[in-house]
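Entry type: protein chain
Record version: 2
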Amino acid sequence: MIRIKSPQEIALIRNSCKILVSTFQLLEQMIHAGVTTREIDAEAEQFIRSRDARPAFKGYNGFPASTCISIDDQVVHGIPGNTRLEEGKIVSIDIGVEFNGYFGDAAKTFVVGNTDSERKRLVDVTSQALNKGIEIIKPGRKLSDISFAIQTHVESAGYSIVRDLVGHGIGKKLHEDPQIPNFGPPHQGPKLKEGMVFAIEPMVNMGNYQIILEKDQWTVKTMDGLPSAHFEHTVAITATSADILTSGI
């Protein structure tokens, strides 16, 4: 069941998202060759806790860190550790925050220094795909209209949308109904209504859409070893469109 949030609940989710935005703005200054993913994770956790909030991922289903940091061919759920960022790679950071009982969730792919044109284009297309999905949102449309808009943009650029991982509802829980695939035909599923809050997150592969799970049982990689990018916003549906609660990351 998709929960409709009251204006007061959306305000609480927005507060969590404000902390997320500030966290991303802080971490962006750390994205350079030589920094370890553990250092990035530690900075994020310290900052979130300094705001009397909680890193939502830490301990979630046993996940050992506060952030998911995924490099190049890693799609999502990379575990921070001793790996150092390398010039020219792309790195996706996914963070959840709980504040006063409500959650926000966001992700962004960064370029480490200077990179080749194909990686840069992959990052740009993925960001654009997220925006295309959000732009389609208005009450009365169907859930899969979001999915179709994302898939259409990604595939028209010659890339593949990951099919085994989805966006989701969010609010008093990190993951709520509905699941939101990033592919599929339009005009399917429940009607969009004012007060719904979604975490929309396209994951886009440079090669084919197939993925594999690493031995750590968390990190998801592309099967063909080509890079992947990931962007995510938490959005609330208004009377006319979508309000991006994590705008500014």
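Comment: The chain is about 30% helix and 25% strand.
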